[in-house]
Amino acid sequence: MNYQSAIQSQEISSPITISLQSEFEQLTLDTSPKQDPLTNQHSGILDFIDEIDQEEKFKKHQSLSLQKELIRRNNKNKSNEGQSSPHSNQSLVDQKFKYIKELWLQESPIQEINKQILSQRVISINEEQYFKDLQNDNVIGMGVYHSNEASPLMYFEPDIETDIYISSLIDSLWGNQIISRKLQKLIESGTPEQQLLIVQKLERISPQIQKDVFGNYVVQKIFDSCGDIKLKTRMFNKLKTHFYDLSKNPFGCRVMQKLIEYSQGKEDIQNSILSQLVQNMRSLIYDSNGNYVIFKMLESYDKSKMEFLIPIVEESFHYMAQQIYGCKIIHKIIQQYPPNYIANLVKQSISNYSVLSQTEFGNYILQHILQFWIVSPEKTRLIQLVIQQFYQLSINKYASNTVERALEALSKPELITVLNWLLFRSQAQQQFSYVASNFVQLANHQFANYVIKKFLILIDQQMQQSILNFLIKNQQEYQALKSTLHGQRICSLLEKQVKC
């Protein structure tokens, strides 16, 4: 066997080869399980040199014909001496190390890659160089730097910290207002990659996070400020099957209202929301949180899409008339739809005027009927009912607003009738030393004084003069009127109106 054929046929790895391979992998920082080109090309040569060295040693020992005991004794006696191979072939050793040195100094492709890897520096996403590399397509994803010549296994991800940071924020979001504001800020002004990360991690905890006291604001911010339509669509689809559940939750209903705002002008999204909620609309009407969602739909959607709601509201009128948002829904329907659609609803409102007039939002229903409803027997009936309880309704905080609207709808003869009632004093009242007239009592009241102001503005100057003459004739009335702050303002307005 000649030297060249032995090199080509020998494939057994020696201990020296394994050691060199391990050291070389550590220097290149590449510990991945792959075959090293150095092993493939040159291991045969190194193994052959080692084999020749071992054969020379064996032949030398055989020629000496020493017994094993003597060999061990000689080794024991020389235990304090340096351990070496005195009989090894020095030329082969020199040849071996010379060859290894040549291999090490040789510019192989692996060593070129090693130099490139060691010369690369990890680029921070905050450095200006990052944006230059981004323009040259050297940066992929979230700050990951790639070299065109480097191994695909060798790349750096400095923004893994961003992923961990956002994950920690999402995990700490529950009931945390500060974390909620941080995430909202990232959605509003963060990078597209940061926005994508937030949406991905919110999807994993939906729809529970939408029901959180502060988590719902983060989801609202996605539909409000995020510029990526795909992310909005992605979150919308994630919540699609949970619309009804969210609508009944005190915090989830806020997300639903934001979704309804987002769907304005988007027919497909509106139809998707309606398809999920129409079958549960009666249940939402009897839920205080569901009322918010229904009212937002009435505000945002075309009225033709919400016609189906009118008969449902008529059925639930008595309950809704006692609820704040129930009254707002009734008012919104009466405000939006023509008379032929809401005639039954108006009749029910008039029948329950005593309840509606004394509630914060119910009085708006009656006010709207008195102000905008066509002249009809129903409207006339409502005016008569209000005037019949003029005093009781005028001293109520909310019903006084209804009385003001009723005064605006009165004709001049009807206003004169009201005036006579205000200034009238019965014989029983006159028997006592002094009992104030209805006019003075209402003018001095904290709520009813607004009704008297409206009345003084609506009547003509002749009627105003008759009131002033009555007060001058009855000085006790005049003094009683001026005894309170509200009465002083009424007196000042009356005198000003007469002089004009």
From TrEMBL:
The keyword Repeat applies. Pumilio repeats lie at residues 238-275, 276-311, 384-420, 434-469. One of its GO terms (cellular component) is cytoplasm. GO terms for molecular function: mRNA binding. Pfam families: PUF. It comes from the Eukaryota. Residues 142-498 form the PUM-HD domain. The keyword Repeat applies. This is PUM-HD domain-containing protein.
